[in-house]
Amino acid sequence: MSVVEQSNKGKILAVDDTRDNLILVQTILESEDYEVDIVSDGISALKYVEQTPPDLILLDVMMPGMDGYEVTNRIRKNPAFLKNYIPILLITAFHESSVVEGLDAGADDFIRKPFDTDELLARVRSLMRLKKSLDEQQKMARQREDFVSRLTHDLRTPLVAADRMLGLFQQETFCKISPEMKQAISVMIRSNQNLMQMVNTLLEVYRMEAGKKTFNDEVCNLPEIVQEVVSELAPLANEKNLTVKVDTSGLEPNQKDPGFVMGDALELRRIFNNLLGNAIKFTDTGGITIRLTENNNSSEKNWVKIAVEDTGYGIAPEDQATIFERFRQGRNKRSGSGLGLHLSHRIAEAHGGNITLSSELGKGSVFTVKLPKNM
Fold first, then answer.
1. Domain containing residue 74: CATH number
2. Is 181 helix (H, G, I), strand (E, B) or coil?
3. pTM of structure
4. Is the confidence at residue 220, as pLDDT, over 50?
């Protein structure tokens, strides 16, 4: 069998402070065409794993200096291995409690000394199958994310071009058009902009999940941001004869910078744009109230809360638990892609806050954004 074929079966790192044990394990595994490297202590094992991650680690529990539990724990807590999972097989001569401790530390399986060769090979094969399955899943996820990212990026170009061209038609740049045609073009413009918003949201979601999203850290005036969003979306509310009110009476007027937080103003604006836009979409009568409140208690963390209250359809209890999940669409016929709330929730979490929901069918919903002041 060639070197290439051997490496395809998998690379294994064996860790044991007893050289005879290492040679025995190495001989058994190499006879089955595995590529095996050996080290004699925990610190060397961690250095090896960081430099050339293996497909599987065989790890002795009892070693001087750093035992197998600590090695396992450090590997599992290392962010570098979150996307490149390495199965760990513990080798122990002790009783059940040591096995429990090892599994709790993050090991995937164990085998007791003195071990049977067939049992060792069976456990190695099992964990190698696990590794292959996880690698395939991650590969497919990366391919899917890359495809969606490229697709959404490529879609934006014709959508932007179409938006500009429709705008020129509406302005009668090329020729005079009838009122009926202007109305039709307005519908086309709105549909195109809705599609472009969906594409942009999808792109932002995948940037966030791929770890490519960066946030600015600046002083953000939340009352001002909210008021700007309200002004931008006022035409949509006016079309449905809905009232939109901003209530800042819950802010502390005597405190310095009431309603101010540290964060990314553009991303926070995205949250409120999405929440108010949804409130307008799912409300036919009544209106929306946005309430800003804060606490300035020296004994606990200071927060600013922004509650978006509507008098719309409300959300069924069975849908509320999953409302912030990706692609989780509501049952209302007006529901969108199911990405806006997911992205908003992720942005709030990235700012050290959260979004919660309180809703009752037929009476409306309240989405509350909670952000730390950090000032």
1. 3.40.50.2300
2. helix
3. 0.55
4. yes
